[in-house]
Every structure is written in structure tokens, then in C-alpha cells.
């Protein structure tokens, strides 16, 4: 299974809303990840990044 880590070794448990876009000719695209209340911003987690 894939995981997202904003801080190395700390998995983000919040599942993001993902939006995919593609250019008209299909040569490029973008994936946008939106997190509602990500754990990386919680006080006890932010100390792990230092």
C-alpha cells in the first residue's frame, strides 16, 4: 500500500481528496491532494520534523 510522509518516517493517516487534471493534448497533467486536518500540522507531530 502507498503512504504519504511529510516528515520522514511519519505516515499521514488522513486520506486526501485527489483531483486529476490533464491538458487537452494529454501530454501533461496534475494531481492535487487536499487534506482535511492533516496530522502533520498537529502539535505533537510538528516536533518530529525538527
From TrEMBL:
Please indicate which superkingdom the organism of origin belongs to. Answer: Eukaryota
Key words, A-Z: Chloroplast, Membrane, Photosynthesis, Photosystem II, Plastid
Instruction: Spell out the Gene3D superfamilies in the cross-references.
Output: Photosystem II Psb28
Subcellular localization, as worded in the UniProt entry = Membrane
* GO-annotated cellular components: photosystem II
Question: Could you give a single Gene Ontology term from the biological process aspect?
Answer: photosynthesis
Topological category with respect to the lipid bilayer: Peripheral membrane protein
Q: Per the similarity annotation, which family is this?
A: Belongs to the Psb28 family.
Q: What is this protein called?
A: Photosystem II reaction center Psb28 protein
- The organism named in the record is Rhodomonas sp. CCMP1170
